[in-house]
Structure formats: C-alpha cells, structure tokens
Specification:
The complex is a heterotrimer. Chain A is mostly helical. Chain A is 74% helix and 1% strand. Chain A has a two-stranded antiparallel ribbon. Chain B is mostly helical. The chains are: A mainly alpha, B mainly alpha, C mainly alpha. Chains in contact: A-B, A-C, B-C. At the B-C interface, helix 1, helix 2 and helix 3 of B face helix 1, helix 2, helix 3, helix 8 and helix 9 of C.
C-alpha cells in the first residue's frame, strides 16, 4: 500500500533469528563444501550439524512468546511455527547423521550438507508463512531443493527417472496452485490470510472454493494427498535412501502446516465446509496408501505407500481442526511420533542397503540372526507405524481417533481403524521374514556410527514417547496456538 | 473504462490454462511438457495482473507476487532442463515413455 | 474501441501461439510460437496498465525461449520437422501434414524388444563390490566397509565369477565379450552394448542382430554396434554375406574403393563390403525417405539426415499407416502388407515411434484441456467480481521497491535463495561427471 508506515527493522529481525541463522549457515556451507578436499568433506557435515543444533537455541526461546505477526502480517511467529521449527530442525539433524556415511565418496558430497540445510530452512519458512506470496515462494523453494537432492546420484538410472518424474509432476502441481492463488487474490483482493478471512463474506464463494481447490493441488503434492500422491512411490524408490527419509517427513510436515494455516485462518469452516472435504481426502489418501502397499516387495516402495497412508491419518487431524479443539495437538503429537518411527525405519533400510546392497524384502530374510540389532529396531518401528501399544504410534493414533470422533467424523475414524487393521499385513510381513526365514547371506553388517546414532535416537524417541507421552503432549498443546487474528 | 472488462481477460486465462493442461498430458518430450507448464504459468500471471488492475489496484503486493511467480517459472525451467539433460545423458532420450522402469 | 481491437488481436496471438507450439512438428517454429504468445501477453499487461510487469515478462521469457530452443536442438533427432513433413507427404498420410503426429496405437511386434525393455530383476541396482572383498555388495560407489577401498562395478572386476546368485538366467553377459558378466542388466563396460541373459548371448538364433558394417558383431537384442555406432539389424535381412569380402565401396560412389571399412571421402556414408558390381542397383536397394537420391545395398543411415534407410518401395504409399493421423485413430498394419518387404515391422515401428511427438494419451489430453477450460470459463464468467472504482495511480516502481524492503523482505531474500538453489541445482545436475 503506498504511503505505508515505515517498518521498524530491529523487532522484525528479532522475530526471524533462527531463519537468518540458517540462511547464513547455508551460504557458508555452499561456499566451503564443494571446495574442501575429499578427505576433509566431513568438516562440512560437522559444520552443518553444529549449525543446526545451534539453531535450536533461539528457537527454544521463542516457545514462550505470544503469537504475533511479523513483516506487516506476512509472516507468523506463533507457537505453531515454533513447533514446526523444532520438528523440522530435528528431522534434518537426524537425516544428516543418517546420511553422512551414505554419501561418502560420491560426487557432490560437499554440496549435500548445504542442500540439506537449505531444505530445512525453506521448510521452516514455509510453515510460518502467512501470505500467499511467501507460501508460493517457499513451496517452490522446498520443491526445487528436493528435486536436486533426489537427482544428486547422477549415475543411477532409477534416480534419474525418479527426479524427472518428481520434477514434472511437482512443477505441474505448483503451477496449478499458482493459478488457484491468483483466483483467491481475485476473489478477495488481498494476499494476506487474515485479511482474506475478513473479506470472505463479501467475496464470491464459488471462486474461493475453486481457488482453494486448485491451491490444494500444490499443497496436496507436498503432503502426498491423493490424488496427488502418484509421484511418491517412484521418487522414494529411486532417490538415495536418506533423501527419501527426509522427503517422507519434512515437506509433508511443512505442507500440513501451511494447509492448516490456510484453512484455519483464511477460510472460516462454517461457510465452506472444508472439514468435510478434507475428511474425504483423508479417507481416500489412507485407503489408497494402504491398499497399494500390500503388494510391494521393495522396502522403499513399501515405506513410500506406508507414508501415504500415514499422510491420510495426519489429514484426519487437519479435517478435525475446524471443529475440535484437541485435533491440532493430536496432529502435532502424531507428527513427532511419525518423525521418530519413519526416520528409524528408513535408517534401518539405509543400513541394510549399505550392508547388503539389497532394497528388496528378500534382503531382509533372516535378518534376525544376521543383524539382530537392526532387525529388532526395525520391528519396533514397524510395530509403532502399525499402531501397537505401548509405542508412540499407538498414542498418536488414539489421539487422532479421538479428535475425529470429537469433530463428528465417526465415519472417518472407522475408516482409519479399518486401514490400521489392513496395514498390519504389510507392517508385519517384513518382521516375519526377518525372523522366520533363513538368511540368504552370512556377511555381518557394519553400520556407520552416525547412522547407528540416528537409529538409536529414533528408537529412544519411539519408545519413550509411547511410554511417557506427557511431555510431548504438552509441547503439542502449547504449539497448537496459531495466530488466527 | 471502455476497454475489455475483467471477464474477457479471465476467459483468456482459462483458455490458456486449458491449452497448457492439454500440452502437459499430450506431449512426449520432457522439454515440451516444461513449456506447457510455462503456458499455465502465463495464465496465472494474466489472471493476477487483471485482478490487480480491476479489483485491487492499490494492492501492489500483486506486482511482487508477479515477480515471485516469474522467478518461480524461470528457476523451474533452469532446473528442469538440467534434469532433462541429465536424463538424456543416461538414456539417450528426453521422451518420457523411455523413463518407465519403475512401475506399480 | 481501439482497446478491444488490441485485446482481441493479442488474445488470438496468445492462444494461437500456445496451440501452435504444441501442434507444430518443427522445434524452431515451436519456440517462435511460444515467444509470440509470451510477447502477446506482455502486450496485454501494457493494456492493463502494468508496464513494469510487461517489461519483466518480455525480458525473462525471451531469454528462456532461446534456452529452450537450444535444448530442443540438442535433444531431438528432427528439430526442424522437415523430415516428418516430407515423410508424411510422400506416404500420403491423411491429416494435416504440418501438425505433429500421434504415436502409433497398436503395440510393437513381439520381436521388437526395445533395448530399454530390460528384464526386470528385483532392485535392478548395479552391483558394486570391493576388489579385496567380493562378498561386499552395494548399489553404488562408495567405500568398502571392511577395508575402505573404493568400490568398483562387479562386472569390471570379476569377469569369471557370477555373484552369489542362483541360476544362469540371472547372469547377464555381453554378446561381444562373454567374459563380462553381471548379475543385473546394464551396459558392457568394454563396448557399451546391452548385456543379455547368458544363455541368450551364447546361441545364435533367428533373431540375431548384427551390424551391417561389422558382421562379426552379434547380439540377440537390437542396439548399437560398439564399433561404429550403427543400429544393429536382423541378420536375416542383410543381403551382404559379410565376413569374406575385403573390398569396401561407397553405395553412392562405386568408384570409391577401400580395403578397410570407413567413410566415403565424397559423401561420408559408411563404406560397405562390395560383393558384386550390381549391389547398388539390386532389388534390395535401400533409400532414404527424405532423400531418394541416396541409395545403398544395406540398411544404415542416410548421410544427409541420419534417418534409417528404408527399402526402396515402388509400391503404393502406405495407406495402412493410419495410426499417425492427427487425432490418433486406427492402428498400424504391420508386416502383412507386402509393400515394405524388407524393413522389418520392428524397425519401422521404432522409426515411427522415434518421430512421434505426442503420447498415446492424446484423446485424454484433449478432453482434459477442453473440459478444464470450459469449466473454468463457466465459473469465472458467472461469478461476481469486486471491482475497484478507481484505477491504479501511484508510481509503480517505487511502491514495489518499498514493499520488497518491508512487508516482503522475507520474499526478497527467499527469491534470492530460490535463484541460488536453482543455479546450484542446475549446475550440479547438468554438469558432466568425469570418471576417475
């Protein structure tokens, strides 16, 4: 707006210290990573790790702040944003640990830490964006960085194919989203989410719905919501396994955050009934994911479809967010649990892949005797994903079911329960193979220490969060406040 | 304002959107799919400018949005062409039906 | 009134340019069409009083189109579209000749296993192993977990042993170099030929492919000759009895004679073994569909346009190739028509497929495009739009600049990082790796 009052710089910058820290870290990493000699590439990884851990400090301090808007309303600094900052930082730290050894000796090893931190930063920025311009920009930044990370293994034909398919599908979705956002702007005359909510009564609802539906193309792509899930299986299969791990958690979480913000802030649920629409999408997503997972034989594809199913569960939390108070804490809790168990599962898959070269289920035969620790931890993660007590997944699913029922979506809870039962098959299948089948190789595995640490942290989280959920529940509750205005 | 009304521009945008979508699904070459994506982007840009002019001329954030969208499109093209080139080096083709090893 | 005229003109160019880009066979024309469409849009922006944005539009997109054009020329066999145009004319194909063709609808004949249709083993990761510890197996390069040596592809290290696995059907070997073995399909590290299952490599059969120039090259699958890069053809089709002939001549210039294979100094065509003086004029002459003056006794590539040579048919043009009509109806009639006796259905199909620009989804694509445009138009035209009573008045550039430094400062920095990510990504992915 012309003649706008000058913004005060200092308080604005104080609101984005973690983001600025990460931005600076990215520049340092890109400046130094590629130029390190091969033996010293590890320095880039240590620096990235240290930098990410350092970013926790200013972020934790922001937990107690009041929800507020920064940059003239374009950026939200609220407990929800802080929660996602913490979640995404933790995700990236664990992926860094898990992938250190995986990328050793590969070309472009020095670029990977920079790319990972850039992805982390852009996901964090996306989760707090409150303005259509920033949302569009950061969706694209997350996507571009993801495309590059998937394609970084240039010799592997599957990785090429994965990154091409990922790119084409993603770009179409993002561009359709931009068209939808233009319609939202046209209907309301503003780009700011809060302002949009204020102007909604005068806006033509058909355009708003159309615009939202098209915008959901871009969000759905990030969240792997059906029918925008078709890129997932091939991309997850072809990408380097640690990258797959990151993609299965990070962008999904960021996409859920922005979906939540857009719907909860800009569009009052009474007029457009988006909760029912989201509930329908949730049901479709979880069913598609679980059904297609049943016949997979490749562990990465299996976990890919499993993550689509899990995305359906998470969407259940979003659907209920319009009507039930407990739904956002349930969603946030499940995200923490999902981080722990998915990261762990992919971590073990990485270890098995490095150790035996196999990504097929056949490589997991007899793992119980070949590598008991890996087999045991994978069992834990799969059981948690299936929702078995006393693990984190069980608590998370219970909370989400409760939220759905509280929001009047009993049918959705029933569908979710049926899907959980269905998923038992493909979660238990690898466990059976690990312990009941004879091993097809006798070489013992040697897992890199960093990867072992990543898996260990995931185990600890999965078990502790399941047995002592209270701290995470309260974190989720406090994080559930977003600036609605 | 004697010129064409807002609806005229929106109609043109809708037609461009349809053409772009047609291109995305019908083209075999990855570069052509990329260009079809640019057509859809153009439709979004046209919408944006038309809305700015007719509905919210005071909201200059729309022009910032335009710049951001154009940047998105340019970077998409750059990275996309690099990916296509990488795929071409590996498989000798840019045609997407040659990139179908993974199924199911 | 003037504004309406301008609008209609620019709108027609915008839509016409986009459609033209998708429907033309020539990449040069496609780039120009798209550029015209973008510039028309810039004109519309000027009509909408957004001059700054029009300038940005023109600047960004003209450069982009040039880059796209470069890529198309690099990646396509027929960027100019002349080959296709002439082919369609000669063959009398129905439909608008100038428009791009749809892919042949019926599946390829059974023998034409394309090199890309490799048998799918599980995982299909190339097997890398440690030279000291063969039991180590990894999907890619790295370090041996036992001794930290760099891993290498198993096929290159252990010519004799097939890794752990089970039966012969899982071992792949190179048809030219039987000592090269691998547990997964791929390329022979010595000559680049596709690896084939072992038993297939050892037995010559009716579907053996060979190189017209190098008859000693034998393979059970189509591909390229490792010595000269020519496409392999079915051995049964070659007229030239190969191994004994030692004099090589150019099919176009019979006076050129050489005792070694190579290229004709006059026209750069590959020299072929000279079996008898009438080789060129015989009933099995091959010619280029584009350049009928090019003749050869063996299949190969035309020296002018690198198309595969086809048998010189004096028979009527192929009305049977209806599959290439714009609109994609009908299938192709293979093999059964006697008009093209020598070019195998497989090779012909492959040629058609290589030339096609649209996928088999063409009818769906048209439906999606039309339905979405109609649906959007209907919703958009029926809606009530908030219209502002005043027009734009402030000075564009300064306000946008102000916004970028205040409300959208994060956007400003974010755009800079987007460009950074794009440049790094493009360089990283596009760079050619040097093998150590």
């Amino acid at each position: 707006m012309p003649g706008m009052a000058k913004m005060e710089m200092a308080p604005e910058l104080a609101r984005v210290i973690p983001e600025m820290w990460l931005a600076g870290l990215v520049l340092v990493l890109f400046g130094m990573g590629p130029f390190l000699p091969a033996r010293r590439k590890g320095w880039a990884w240590w620096l990235a790790l240290g930098g990410l851990l350092g970013a926790f400090v200013p972020t934790l301090r922001m937990l107690t702040w009041q929800p507020q808007l920064g940059f003239d309303g374009a950026y939200a600094v609220d407990p929800l944003g802080v929660f996602f900052k913490l979640l995404l930082l933790a995700t990236t730290v664990v992926v860094l640990l898990a992938s250190r050894d995986y990328f050793r000796g590969m070309p472009h090893e020095g670029d990977i830490p920079g790319l990972l931190v850039l992805l982390a930063g852009s996901m964090i920025l996306l989760a707090s964006s409150n303005d259509l311009v920033l949302i569009a920009l950061f969706v694209q930044l997350v996507s571009i960085t993801s495309y590059v990370l998937v394609g970084v293994w240039k010799d592997e034909p599957l990785a090429n194919e994965a990154s091409l398919k990922f790119f084409l599908f993603g770009s179409v979705s993002v561009t359709v989203m931009l068209y939808g956002m233009s319609l939202l702007f046209g209907a309301t005359g503003t780009l700011n989410l809060q302002e949009m909510a204020r102007r909604l009564p005068q806006a033509d609802l058909s355009i708003v719905v159309l615009g939202l539906a098209l915008t959901l193309a871009g969000y759905g792509f990030k969240i792997s919501m059906a029918p925008f899930h078709v890129w997932v299986a091939d991309t997850y299969q072809g990408a380097p396994t640690p990258v797959t791990a990151l993609l299965s958690i990070g962008p999904k979480a960021a996409g859920l955050a922005v979906l939540l913000r857009t719907l909860a802030v800009a569009v009052p649920p009474d007029e457009t009934n988006w909760p029912a629409a989201v509930a329908a999408m949730a049901a479709l997503t979880m069913t598609v994911g679980n059904v297609l997972a049943l016949r997979q034989t490749n562990i990465k594809r299996l976990l890919a479809y499993s993550s689509i199913g899990q995305a359906g569960f998470l969407l259940m939390g979003v659907a209920a967010a319009g009507r039930d108070e407990l739904s956002v804490p349930a969603l946030l809790f499940y995200l923490v649990a999902y981080l722990a168990m998915n990261m762990g599962a992919f971590g073990v898959a990485t270890a098995v892949e490095r150790g035996s070269g196999s990504v097929e289920l056949g490589g997991y035969d007899g793992l119980g005797s070949r590598a008991p620790w890996l087999a045991g931890t994978l069992t834990l993660f799969l059981l948690s994903l299936a929702g078995m007590p006393p693990l984190a997944g069980f608590i998370g699913k219970t909370m989400l079911f409760g939220a759905a029922m509280g929001a009047g979506f009993a049918w959705l809870a029933a569908v979710a329960a049926a899907n959980s039962a269905l998923s038992l098959y493909y979660y238990l299948l690898p466990i059976a193979r690990m312990y009941l089948q004879p091993p097809n190789g006798s070489m013992p595995f040697r897992t890199a220490p960093a990867l072992a640490l990543a898996i260990g942290l995931s185990v600890a989280a999965t078990v502790l969060v399941g047995v002592l959920p209270e701290p995470v529940v309260s974190l989720a509750r406090s994080g559930a406040r977003l600036f609605v205005g | 304002m004697s010129g064409p009304p807002l609806q005229a521009y929106l109609l043109l945008g809708a037609v461009l959107f349809g053409v772009g979508l047609f291109g995305v699904f019908s083209q075999r070459g990855a570069v052509m799919i990329l260009m079809s994506i640019e057509i859809i982007l153009n439709a979004a840009l046209l919408n944006l400018v038309a809305f700015w002019r007719f509905s919210a001329p005071a909201e200059y954030g729309a022009q910032v949005f335009f710049i951001v969208m154009t940047t998105i499109g340019a970077i998409e093209m750059a990275v996309g062409l690099a990916i296509v080139l990488m795929g071409f080096r590996n498989r000798g083709s840019q045609y997407v039906d040659r990139f179908m090893d993974m199924r199911g | 009134m003037v504004e309406w005229l301008a609008f209609v003109l620019l709108a027609v160019i915008a839509v016409g340019g986009s459609l033209g880009m998708l429907l033309t066979m020539s990449m040069y024309r496609a780039a120009i069409f798209l550029m015209a469409s973008f510039v028309a849009l810039a004109g519309l922006f000027i009509l909408l009083q957004a001059d700054l944005l029009a300038a940005i539009q023109v600047m960004m997109n003209v450069g982009g189109m040039l880059v796209m054009l470069l890529f198309m020329v690099a990646l396509m066999m027929d960027p100019g579209g002349e080959m296709m145009w002439d082919m369609k004319r000669k063959m009398g194909l129905p439909g608008f000749s100038a428009l791009s063709m749809s892919m042949p609808r019926s599946p390829p004949p059974a023998e034409a296993a394309r090199p890309e249709d490799r048998p799918r083993t599980g995982g299909s990761n190339t097997d890398w192993t440690c030279p000291m510890h063969p039991e180590v197996s990894a999907p890619g390069p790295g370090s041996c977990p036992k001794c930290s040596m760099d891993l290498a592809p198993r096929a290159a290290l252990q010519p004799e042993a097939a890794p752990a696995a089970d039966t012969d059907t899982d071992t792949y070997a190179c048809p030219m170099h039987p000592e090269v073995q691998s547990s997964a399909p791929g390329q022979c590290p010595k000559c680049g030929m596709n690896l084939v299952p072992r038993e297939a490599a050892q037995e010559p059969s009716a579907t053996t492919y060979t190189c017209p120039m190098h008859p000693d090259v034998q393979s059970p699958t189509p591909g390229k000759c490792p010595k000269c890069g020519m496409d392999l053809v079915l051995q049964a089709e070659l007229q030239a009895p190969a191994p004994a002939a030692t004099t090589y001549t150019c099919p176009m210039h019979p006076e050129v004679q050489s005792s070694t294979p190579g290229k004709c100094p006059k026209c750069s065509m590959d020299l072929v073994p000279q079996e008898d003086p009438q080789a060129v004029a015989g009933p099995t002459a091959y010619t280029c569909p584009m350049h009928p003056e090019v003749r050869s006794s063996t299949p190969g590539k035309c020296p002018k346009c690198s198309m595969d040579l086809v048998p010189d048919e004096s028979a009527a043009p192929m009305a049977g190739h209806a599959g290439m009509q714009h609109g994609g109806e009908g299938g192709m009639h293979h093999g059964g028509d006697g008009a093209m006796p020598r070019m195998s259905p497989a090779a012909h199909y492959k040629m058609m497929v290589d030339m096609a620009m649209s996928t088999a989804l063409l009818p769906w694509a048209i439906a999606i495009g039309v339905v979405s445009a109609l649906l959007l138009s209907w919703v958009l035209l029926r809606a009530t739009w908030p219209l502002s009573p005043t027009g734009p008045n402030a000075d564009d550039v300064s306000v946008v600049g102000e916004l970028l430094l205040s409300r959208y400062m994060i956007g400003f920095e974010g755009a800079a990082y987007l460009i950074l990510a794009g440049v790094i990504g493009a360089v990283l992915l596009g760079k050619r790796e040097h093998r150590r």
